[in-house]
Amino acid sequence: MTSINANNVLNLKQLKEDIHSKKAKIGIIGLGYVGLPLAHAFVNNSFSVLGFDIDESKVNKLKNSQSYIKYIPASQIAEMNNTGRFQATVDHAQLREVDIIIICVPTPLTKHREPDMSYVVSTTEAIKPHLKSGHLVILESTTYPGTTEEVLKTILEKSGLICGQDFFLGYSPEREDPGNINYKINTIPKVVGGDDPDTLEMCVALYGAIAAGVVPVASIKTAEAVKLTENIFRSVNIALVNELKIVFEKMGIDVWEVIEAAKSKPFGYMPFYPGPGLGGHCIPIDPFYLTWKAHEYGISTRFIELAGQINTSMPLRIVQRLAEALDERFSRGLRGAKLLILGIAYKKNVDDMRESPALEIMEILRERGAEVFYYDPFIPEIEKTREHMELAGMKSIGCTAEELKKIDAVIICADHDSVDYNFIVENSSLVIDTRNATKAVNHHRERIFKA
Ligand SMILES: NC(=O)c1ccc[n+]([C@@H]2O[C@H](COP(=O)([O-])OP(=O)(O)OC[C@H]3O[C@@H](n4cnc5c(N)ncnc54)[C@H](O)[C@@H]3O)[C@@H](O)[C@H]2O)c1
Fold first, then answer.
1. On the CB side of 354, how many CA atoms lie within 13 Å of its CA?
2. Per-residue DSSP letter, 50
3. Is the residue at 1 inside a domain?
4. Which residue, judged by its Cα, is nearest atom 13 of ligand 1?
5. 283-322: per-residue pLDDT in tens?
6. Residues of the domain holding 95
7. What residue's CA is closest to ligand 1, atom 44?
8. CB of 106 sitting under 6 A from ligand 1
9. 344 Cα distance to chain centroid
10. What CA–CA distance (Å, rounded) separates 450 from 274?
11. pTM for the structure as a whole
């Protein structure tokens, strides 16, 4: 027993030293929107990284210095490969070669809107046989408070190794905002929680090497709760502004102008913007992780659920506005109308269409008998998704004057910066603008309907 403890003290001391000297080798599991930029940040800061993914095509692309994420250029992958400090693999057995394991796998919802922990569980099961004394394991996936201790610790301790003694466990939420050029890993502070003070100290040192700052919190649970709080805050405020939009619209007030003026207040107000609904892998999903966990404590999360209802009703609301506009302008209905969805990504300047409200709008329009096309410079073709199978295989059409002339209405769902909105309005008879993308268009404003 004494010798085991002595070994553990040595392991801990060694790991701390290796983190400080950047000799610690980092394994990142899940090389998606979160894991790949994280790998880049560590490599860029002199650490060696071994990336793991079950998707062989991603691993092969990385090996060939190709990127599969639009805003991460292939040159960045080549740069990582050229350092000789980055490798990607599908072989979890290589986890034994690393000192620190960071998990960045998906945490979606099931079709009953409950946390789908299958990726976290299968990843932890895959780590278990390769877990060794001295490993530091950190979860970055967004999840409900309690996951790291209840799920990861339970599974990993089945290896016979003990948390806090043989291996160490931490949690650090990812705050990456894909496509946001103003904030990257090195300009966003990182929140960290550890299972014990030594682990917390190691997490602080590790993330301190790549982040703008580190915010240590009292427990892993607290760190898990921080991430959910941030995303619930967004979801609730977006719902609020979506509701205000509807009220102000009826009163003949432009909600966008209201927000512009309100944000001149230097305190007590933060702008959120309305839109066609919520999208992406975080805001529509994460709040419901807390809702689910709160039920275990006999508490219902009414704010979260109300925000969810308002936000998910927005696509239908946009379709109603479109129908009103078609009727008002051309005395026609949706059936047989040729419609162009402009921007199907869930937000501007990204190639990510997960949970995108544009897809929901396209489906409703098709059900109502409209002929639907789309243009998105970031998404040439709609890939298969569980929820929108019937849209799979659709291809982006060209956004030429000739194509626009054939269209009855353009619906702007994602306001990509590369689109020329003057050109769109110039060549379209009706534009439904859900993002205020046409704010700077001066000619033919009578063709624009804000929605
Ligand atoms: N995308 C974002 O903007 C964002 C921001 C903050 C937090 N998050 C959270 O980060 C986590 C990851 O999100 P993401 O957007 O990077 O997901 P993603 O789908 O882009 O990437 C996840 C990757 O994990 C891989 N994977 C799944 N199971 C695996 C396993 N057992 N072993 C190895 N690889 C496996 C997948 O093949 C995929 O490449 C989620 O919990 C998400 O909520 C995402």
1. 14
2. E
3. no
4. 106
5. 999 999 999 999 999 999 999 999 999 999 999 999 999 9
6. 6-218
7. 34
8. yes
9. 15
10. 11
11. 0.92
